[in-house]
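Chain A, query sequence.
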Amino acid sequence: DHSSLPRGQGVLAGLLKSSLIIGASTYPLFTVVLALENTPLLLTSSLIGGIGACLLWVASGQIIADESNNKTAGRNFAYQSVATSAGGIAGIILGGYLVAVESASFMYMALAVFGLIGTFILFFLKPIREEAKPRPFRPMFILDKRMLSLFPFLFGTYYLLGQSFTATNLIVVGLLGLSSVPALVIALRISNVAGALGSGIVANRFNKANILMFVTILSLAGTVLLVSTAEMTPILVGTILIGISGVTAYPVILAWLKEKLPEEEYIYSLGVFHVYANIGVIAALAANIWLSPRASFIPGIVALIIGLVGIVLFEKLTSARSNMH
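Chain A, predicted structure.
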């Protein structure tokens, strides 16, 4: 979950490492609350977890950017994506096993322990710089024309990723039954790992605008396969293509922002990235209330087509700075 709020952009005027640790600690907290099966606590922890996720992802993005240059940023952000997807796969497999041999409550508690261990390890992290430079709070950076040019692409990409967990599952359940869903989820996670590894290899070797346009076409092709058939193999292939293209967006876009934007604006762009991405995910969930599973993919398709133009526009809007280097 990449939950983010504009307020997260200003939090990093404090300690980056502390922000990272505080954000990470909300994940095991939320998992423990799931085991308690208490609705008021669950709602409260969900709110805290959303803010924590903002801290975690924006702080980690800034730390990775500080540790990288324009030639290594794509690779390093890809490593982060690989670790996230691999953790998702491990969680599905381990969680399923623990539920089978123990109980759901035991499974949540066990996974929370792993989260606490990961949070504890962060105390040994030594960032290049402990603090971000104090900056004015700029919530209106969300309307910066350079960032807005990327909005259709990010909205469409994360909209379709959201659909890969919602509408896709509804389609598969209707065709093949509930038992086929775990296989679909694992296939999507594996495609996430493959996409992240691939993006790490190509992000620093090829023009990032061309990479993003290529993965947009992959995502569109995957969506067409997914919604135009009633057979499992094309649905799996379509889901995998969406997974590969979706996870590629994160390292390539963040590396591109580092390359194209001034350093003092980068932290704002990290927050805006996650805001745009989450708008796409929320829209995907909402679309399933009013649209059929197959028709609910249409807004994502339209957004990605517009996103192709936005990628070219961002390149044009930021070309002056690139030409200075």
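Residues 73-101 form the longest helix (29 residues). Confidence is low (pLDDT under 50) at residues 1-14.
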